Amino acid sequence: MKKQQLAVALSLAFASAPSIALDGSDARSIAMGGTGVASANHLTAAFYNPAQMTKFDQSDDFGLLLPALNVSLHGTKDIYTDVEHFIDADKQLGKDFTTGFDATEAQRENWIDALKKLDDAAVEANLGLGFAITVPNNTLSVNLFSKTATATKLSLHIDESDLDITNKRDGDTMASTANLRAGMVTEVGLAMARNVTLPYLDEKISLGISPKIQKVVSYNLYDRIVELGSDEFKLPSDYNETTVFNTDIGVSYRPYESLTVGLSGVNLISQQVASPNINGHVSTFMVEPEFTVAAAYDNGWFMAALDVDLNESKQFDNTQGTQYARLGMELDAFNWAQLRVGYSAGMTEKSTNQVTAGFGLSPFGSLALDLAAKYGSETDMGVALEFSLNI
């Protein structure tokens, strides 16, 4: 096996991406642990809870988010070290395993041990891009938005027959496989929200809805690891796609001026798109409903927010779902600069804990630059950037 084969396989996870479902779609939210259902403003509300579009200052007449960009990577623990270990072990072996061995017993054992560690190793890459144009008002706040989220996952599986290298015959090939799955959702929608007075209670709640058109793409590569290092190897060009209607809904309520509670439902219509059949293998990319309950305290210079996912969500069939409880805080210095921190606590085995942080610069309270980062481990991290205008 050529030493480049695993490196090529790993690089495909990133090169093929055009979100795990992402923890937040804009830099402010990501810096605050992925919160947003009760803490988003009118500009980013369409990404979390359309009802939050009623949250604006009377001086706000127009908002532009152009763009919000985020990327995240997640890999099996020590996957990069393990891959380097195998490449070195394969190089020391000195010969392709199908042509017989002159290697020492120690070199063979080292090669087998390195290959074993790659079993069920995986790398995920997610990319998100969002835009929004909003016109807030007391009659009906509207937000024209677009968002693209991609998710790419590379999984390695080691076949036990490859570990029995002493019985390999000339011409045998590795049976271990690499599976690259990718999905993309591009959506364009119009979010609308207004305050409604509850009869008999004289209390106002905010109701929001976001009808949208989605384009869902599913892609799949399934091949032997040995083929990925071949000079003749080419990525499959086929993919399946569909265009569908979907919708988000949300509710926000302020029992006190500084306290907001919210509930949102995103992607209420479940979608599943199967990839083309590649070497007898089909991958299904999934867009599933996600429900979140949240609360946020905001006194003007300090905000604390808590979002809790009510259900698990997953992007591919035959994978474990993710579910989080998210906490975020923000300090605002005269609407000119913001400091943010957060924490995402995983509620399932698949969900990993992450710490988040970021800052914002908004001179004159209109033009803003926001940066964010999240970190779970050396193989689990992400960054986000956004520009916005609010006048």
Automatic annotation (TrEMBL):
InterPro entries named in the record: Put_conjugal_transfer
Tell me the keywords, alphabetical order: Signal
Gene3D superfamilies for this protein: Outer membrane protein transport protein (OMPP1/FadL/TodX) (2.40.160.60)
Q: What highest taxon heads this organism's lineage?
A: Bacteria
Q: Which residues form the signal peptide?
A: 1-21
What protein name applies here?
Conjugal transfer protein TraF
